[in-house]
UniProtKB/TrEMBL annotation:
Family: Belongs to the NAD(P)-dependent epimerase/dehydratase family.
Enzyme Commission code(s) on record: 4.1.1.35
Cellular component per GO, a single term: cytoplasm
Subcellular location: Cytoplasm
Lineage of origin: Eukaryota, Viridiplantae, Streptophyta, Embryophyta, Tracheophyta
GO BP annotation list: cell wall organization; UDP-D-apiose biosynthetic process
Name of the top EC class for this enzyme: lyase
InterPro entries on file: Arna-like_SDR_e (IPR045869), Epimerase_deHydtase (IPR001509), Lipid_A_modif_metabolic_enz (IPR050177), NAD(P)-bd_dom_sf (IPR036291)
A Pfam family of this chain: Epimerase
Protein name per Swiss-Prot or TrEMBL: UDP-glucuronate decarboxylase
Keywords annotated in UniProt: Cell wall biogenesis/degradation, Cytoplasm, Lyase, NAD
Keyword Cell membrane set for record: no
Alphabetized Gene3D superfamilies for the sequence: NAD(P)-binding Rossmann-like Domain (3.40.50.720)
Length: 386
């Protein structure tokens, strides 16, 4: 750790980071890297600590004293401003970010992603503290290409589907399609942060993740999350594989997505944290345009990878089609294709993702099979017994 320097050769001084949402998927990986590779201190704020328990105990760990857990719900806790004041930098990861909730809990979704984030932005701005705020690729909504005729050759033109931070429009569906409640709330908080920067000098960086995947992501229903919950696509498919059930393809699985390995993505965030001169005032896409697949192709690949890591034979009918109304309820809508433009992050931070889709799926499914397979078996046997 001695003699660490930033991208411009300047020494990196130890800093204190207030990380809101530190106990989640992204937060746990970011905390791990900060503890093992830097001298920085983390004030870890969350309502749960399960995913970072291995960093908090035992007290003989080499980073003991550099990570403190604060069990705080940011909705209504006056201690938050004090922690932000103590820190040099705040990283805000807190959000409701599960598509099944956008329809069924639109009010919670809007409050969580906009109203609850307002005090964080305010405290950072008023106290002259830097903010790294996590947004989402959902802010782009639908691509321009989605509105072209099916047979239009322009659908193949990158200008109509590659998403650029400072040029692409943000196109949402009609108000009755409540699926856009999340994207709209996230876009509005981005605009507010940007305005705080312009009017009050807030130093900020906004991160737009494109499907970050890896160990500890999302939840497996009934094992480390609610039994009736519907997680995001990769965790949904993992859950089906662990339970030997066909993977459900919503509306045929024709939507296209890119996926990036969590460890690649955390490298990008790391560079943002330690290179404020290059990151401040910027919005960064963080994704892997090389790992693009349709949801149907993802299901096929996951079936193959899971068979390899588990030694189990795939089902004869590995997938079934379901309608979005049946799966998500009334008011669901979707974006067709999301490819991140990587120009800005590459120019500012020299960052590029490395891990292939096959490798990141193998790492994730190996972890899930090892961690959850036995628990899923027990849960299934209880259900059968009842």
């Amino acid at each position: 750790m001695a003699g660490r320097v930033d991208l411009d050769g300047n020494p990196i001084n130890p800093m204190t980071i207030c990380m809101i949402g530190a106990g989640g998927f992204i937060g746990s990986h970011l905390c791990e890297k900060l503890m093992s590779e830097t001298p920085h201190t983390v004030l870890a704020v969350d309502v749960y600590s399960d995913k970072i328990k291995h960093l908090l105990e035992p007290t003989s760990l080499p980073w003991n004293g550099r990570i403190q857990f604060h069990r705080i719900n940011i909705k209504n806790d006056s201690r938050l401003e004090g922690l932000i004041k103590m820190a040099d930098l705040t990283v805000n990861l807190a959000a409701i970010c599960t598509p099944a909730d956008y329809n069924t809990r639109p009010l919670d979704t809007i409050y969580s992603n906009f109203i609850d984030a307002l005090p964080v932005v305010k405290y950072c701005s008023e106290n002259g503290k830097r903010l790294v705020h996590f947004s989402t690729c959902e802010v782009y909504g639908k691509t321009i290409g989605a509105f072209l005729p099916e047979d239009s050759p322009l659908r193949q033109d990158p200008a109509y589907f590659v998403l650029s931070e400072d040029a692409s429009p943000c196109i949402f569906g009609p108000i009755e399609k409540q699926r856009w409640s999340y994207a709209c709330a996230k876009q509005l908080i981005e605009r507010l942060i940007y305005a705080e920067g312009a009017e009050n000098g807030l130093e900020f960086t906004i991160v737009r993740p494109f499907n970050w995947i890896g160990p500890r992501m999302d939840f497996i229903p009934g094992i480390d999350g609610p039994s009736e919950g519907v997680p995001r696509v990769l965790a949904c498919f993992s859950n089906n594989l662990l339970r030997h059930e066909p993977l459900k393809l919503v509306d045929g699985g024709h939507s296209q997505r890119t996926f990036i390995y969590i460890k690649d993505a955390i490298e990008a965030v790391f560079l943002m944290i330690e290179n404020p001169a290059r990151a401040n005032g910027h919005i960064f896409n963080v994704g892997n345009p090389n790992n693009e697949v349709t949801v149907k192709q993802l299901a096929e690949m996951m079936t193959q990878v899971y068979s390899k890591v588990s030694g189990e034979t795939p089902l004869e009918t590995p997938t079934v089609d379901v309608s979005s109304k049946e799966f998500y309820g009334e008011g669901y809508d979707d974006s067709d294709k999301r490819i991140p433009d990587m120009t800005i992050i590459n120019r500012q931070l020299g960052w590029n993702p490395k891990t292939s889709l096959w490798d990141l799926l193998e790492s994730t499914l190996t972890y899930q099979h090892r961690t959850y397979a036995e628990a899923v078996k027990q849960a299934m046997s209880k259900t059968t017994a009842n």
